[in-house]
Amino acid sequence: MTEPVGADAPWIQRQLDRLGAQRGQALLLHGPSGLGQYALAEALAALWLCEQPVSTAGAKGGAGRQACGDCTSCHLVRAHTHPDLKVLMPEAVMQALDWPLGEKAQQELDDKKRKPSREIRVEGMRDTVEFAQRTAARGLGKVVLVFPAERMNHVTANALLKTLEEPPGALRFVLATEAVHRLLPTIRSRCLSHPMAWPEATEAQAWMASKGVGASDADVWLKAAGGRPEQALALAHSGMTLTQWRLFPKAMSHGDVAAVADWGAAALVDALQKLAHDLAAVRAGAVPRFFDAAALPKPPSWRRLADWQRGLMATARTVDHPFNPGLMMESLVSQARTALHSAV
Asked: Engineered SS bond to 64: which of 56, 70, 142, 181, CB 3.0-4.6 Å?
């Protein structure tokens, strides 16, 4: 998992000011990945459980609130041990974010009986339903944080729906998702919807500078990530060089597998999808989003672009489990060269 945006990021603080004063038992944070959904969700949970929330100036001069950061509840939230905060996440995400797993799940993973789940498991939902029925340990209500909410299957989503419809006591939900279209309409309709705000360019650059990325490099990586800070930082720390990224369209046009030999299949598919997107934008008379216009080859026909994009989408579904990574990389580069040299 990429290093997540923190709650101290200015665009997260502005949204926290706005949302902290809102009432309602379920809030849905949604938008593209890399904008800080998790950071905002955790900050809201900390605020709702804080014993002494503090007032802030707020966005545009308005009043806002945030957790004090000093009370016992705030310390427990930071330590991921608050008895009135339940996180509902895939096990792989919980491990990446340092949340403790249940005793049974941890034992199964320690014994190598299975791998960490990448979906929200039914067992986790059952624990959440049980948590919802308990009395708050510290008397300030309870919070359920669901992230990434799109990782619920229909069974777990329907189980959550029942609790969302009739939440017992002072129970509040914050759901964060990077694919809101994959949530059940019935879940979306029972939540207050909040689309994540994009950071200003200067804010994203400053955040990346705080992580050790220079301003000129940050500009390139932010463009390569479509303006999303988390993905830009991941690219900057991936081992990929700026020169490799800038020359990527040319390398694919030449069918140069060696240029991407150390990328990995998932990174290559992501870059190819961005290249196909930008070529479609240029063909439509728009400005490319991920690459400099001067670096792009002549776009192929609409039909060839559509066929190529469909193939990339199909590959993306299984790219984490390739039968032969080397052959997959060669095949992807060959398909890209064919698409880029097609005039039909």
From this structure: 56
In the structure encoding, which two tokens stand for residue 111, read together?
A: 């014994």
DSSP state of 6: P
The CA distance from 56 to 14, in Å, is: 10
d(C-alpha 15, C-alpha 58), whole Å: 9
The DSSP element (H or E) to which 177 belongs, if any, is strand 171-177
Task: Write out the chain's pLDDT in tens, 344 residues.
Answer: 456 777 788 899 999 988 987 778 899 999 998 899 999 999 999 999 999 998 876 545 456 788 999 999 999 999 999 999 999 999 999 999 999 998 888 888 888 888 899 899 988 998 998 999 899 999 889 999 999 999 998 889 988 888 888 887 789 999 999 999 999 999 999 999 999 999 998 999 999 999 889 888 999 999 999 999 999 999 999 889 999 999 999 999 999 999 999 998 999 999 999 999 999 999 999 999 999 999 999 999 999 999 999 999 999 888 877 668 788 899 999 999 999 987 54
Q: Helices in the chain by DSSP H: which ranges?
A: 10-20, 37-49, 72-78, 91-96, 103-110, 122-133, 154-165, 185-189, 201-210, 215-224, 229-236, 242-253, 265-283, 302-316, 325-340
CA distance 275 to 264: 17
**289 neighbors 278 (Cβ within 8 angstroms):** yes
Question: What 3-state class would DSSP assign to 28?
Answer: strand
Token match 């964060």: residue?
176
> Are the beta carbons of 31 and 196 closer than 8 angstroms?
yes
The pair of three-digit structure tokens given for residue 225, joined into one six-digit string = 């990530």
Helix segments in 21-90, DSSP class H = 37-49, 72-78
R_g of the chain computed on alpha carbons:
22
335 close to 329: Cβ distance less than 8 angstroms: no
Note the pTM of the prediction, 2 decimals: 0.86
Name the DSSP class of 63: -
